[in-house]
Amino acid sequence: MTDYGIIMLRRVRRLMKIEGQWCIRYVPRDFKKVVDCLAKLSLAGKSSLHVYNSAPIEVLELFQ
């Protein structure tokens, strides 16, 4: 089995070389709760494409 972490690292390095100038910023977890929630929902589904007409319940619950 291939180590996907090394593949990802190589892709990031290649993109950084192509771009020439880049900036890495830390984003606190509190600011990315919605993104984390959507990522988890996508991993739980069977399809690689998810289209939502409205926000999923799990995302709306984050704002309550």
UniProtKB/TrEMBL annotation:
<protein>
    <submittedName>
        <fullName>Uncharacterized protein</fullName>
    </submittedName>
</protein>
